[in-house]
Amino acid sequence: MDSSSISSIESLVNEIKKEMFSNQEFNTFLTPISAYDTAWLAMISYNNQEKAINGHSFSGPMFESCLNWILNNQNEQGFWGESNGENLPTISSLTATLACMIALKKWNVGETNIKKGLKFIHANTEILLKENSQQFPRWFTIVFPAMVQLAKSVGLETIFVNGSERLLSDVVMKRKVILESEKLMDMTAGHDQPLLAYLESFPNYFVDQKDQILKHLSEDGSLFQSPSATAQAFMSTGNQKCLEYLMSIVHKCPNGVPSRFPVDEELINLCMIDHIQRMGLANHFNKEIEQILGQVYENQMNNQNEYLSEISTLPERLFKDSLAFRLLRLQGYKINQGSVCWFVRQPQMRAYIEKNQERFTCVMYNVYRATDLMFNGETEMEKVRSFARNFLESSMKVVNNEDNLLLLPSLQKVVYINFTFLLLMRKIHSFS
């Protein structure tokens, strides 16, 4: 290999390292931007504080960068939001596209974008609803009818005919069942989030219930760490802590916001290492991998007896612990089996996992992979392996499209890597 090829490889590696391991900006390689949440931040005005420009006053968007992101990031097919591996829209693109059009309509910009978005909605709603009609994701059932209603209220001509109208009615009826059967803060119904976490879907309900919203704000000012729900909380209450939370997101993520903030950066780094190793490129990142795993190990030692405060965080905690265990043992660290076996000692947690199969399928798969590295005599690991195997065998009989790891529709979003990143990685691999 000549010196120019070596130089090219080193340049690519340094470019990727800068993108992946820089703490200066939000890492979109592994955690994608949420068009839906970005749209909700774009809807926020200057809280009725007017700005004067050229002698004229107006109330503009508080987070103009979010509005600009919407204007500049519409898919060629006319939608915003996720697409699958074939660049086809997913069901979440319906809610994201409606939210983005609502934001544009509010500020009277992006007329061309809105026309393309409406064309997409009219052409694809029936197709996407029919594909998911056997079991609509819970979040979609709650949010989609609300977005349709809000779109109509701002003057967007959303037209649903024939099959799409019947399917929309089905979603509306399912939403009604959820609202009638669940309490706003019911954390025992087997879902990651209570209804209040979708506050933006119930703005009128809370007009006179500001105290109810403020009561459930987190210490960081967020409502369940959801940018969209917190945006509505701020618009409903004007709470300063909500505003500070939203401003911190935009400061950290100036080019579009994630669906949850703050993200667990340690988990993101672990997922990144896992992907690098799977692709056979770990030798290019030895220093970075060792630094990250060294810090993870130190944190594990300092937090061995950390208590799980919320049962709703169990999927994330267990996924992270099992991934950390596997990567640390592969790297030669002396990590105790208890760091991944703790849940099996608690009957209520085992029962909770078994009751909520759709939420733990990906988690248990990673737990099972971790048990591949158990040593002789680790009896608790054997119990965990048996539990995970039985769980996975049982879950294979269940068809469900709402695997909610990390509050996301699928594991694919947790370990998301964009196409540019893959191309660079493959190019490096071809020179190796």
TrEMBL record:
Keywords: Magnesium. GO terms for molecular function: magnesium ion binding; terpene synthase activity. Residues 215-399 form the Terpene synthase N-terminal domain. Its cofactor is Mg(2+). The keyword Magnesium applies. It comes from the Eukaryota. One of its GO terms (biological process) is diterpenoid biosynthetic process. PANTHER family: (E,E)-GERANYLLINALOOL SYNTHASE, ENT-COPALYL DIPHOSPHATE SYNTHASE, CHLOROPLASTIC. This is (E,E)-geranyllinalool synthase-like. The lineage of its organism: Eukaryota, Viridiplantae, Streptophyta, Embryophyta, Tracheophyta.
